[in-house]
Write a structure and sequence with these properties.
About 55% of the residues lie in helices and about 5% in strands. The protein contains four helices and two strands, in the order E-E-H-H-H-H. It has helices at about 35-40, 45-55, 60-120, 120-130; strands at about 10-15, 20-25. A hairpin with a 5-residue loop joins strand 1 and strand 2 (about 20-25). It is rod-shaped. The relative contact order is 0.03.
Length: about 160
């Protein structure tokens, strides 16, 4: 036969004259915490503390206006910031398009220069200069060499002697 285990409850009085139960055994009886909280006395609050709490619950008109002004200023700053970011993005895209166009123009210019230099026949120019225009090569006495102190340019101060 199975033996039932009984729990024993003992009542004990606390200094504040409330009954407390001690339970011996493997089960605990339900304890009504909400009733305990309702009967718990509220601590006394001073008038000054109560007034401060009431004042903290309500916002004055000046404080509300200050918050509204701060909100408007923040919104204005954020809208301008987003506009500046958009302008920067557009400028970067425009610069990259211009750089691409510059590179294309440089490539086209180099190709045209190569085409022109390859089409020039120096022998034909020499033949036209000598035969048709009567040009001659310089002779030994016509070439004058001189030393320059600087390499950037030479300024002629008088006629070259013959």
């Amino acid at each position: 036969m199975a033996t039932a285990h009984r729990t024993r409850e003992r009542q004990h009085r606390t200094p504040d004259n409330r009954n407390r139960y001690y339970v011996q055994g493997n089960t605990v009886r339900k304890f009504d915490v909400t009733r305990e909280m309702e009967h718990k006395p509220q601590p006394k609050v001073s008038n000054r503390t109560r007034k401060n709490r009431d004042k903290a619950k309500h916002m004055s008109a000046g404080y509300v206006l200050f918050l509204c002004a701060a909100l408007v200023a923040s919104g204005f700053i954020l809208v301008n910031y987003i506009g500046l970011q958009s302008d920067i993005t557009n400028s970067v895209q425009h610069i990259s398009r211009l750089e691409k166009e510059l590179n294309d123009l440089k490539l086209a210019n180099d190709e045209e220069y190569s085409r022109i230099t390859s089409s020039v026949d120096l022998e034909e120019i020499k033949r036209i200069a000598i035969q048709e225009l009567g040009m001659q090569y310089a002779e030994e006495g016509q070439i004058i060499s001189f030393a320059s102190e600087r390499n950037d340019y030479v300024k002629q101060m008088a006629d070259i002697p013959q």
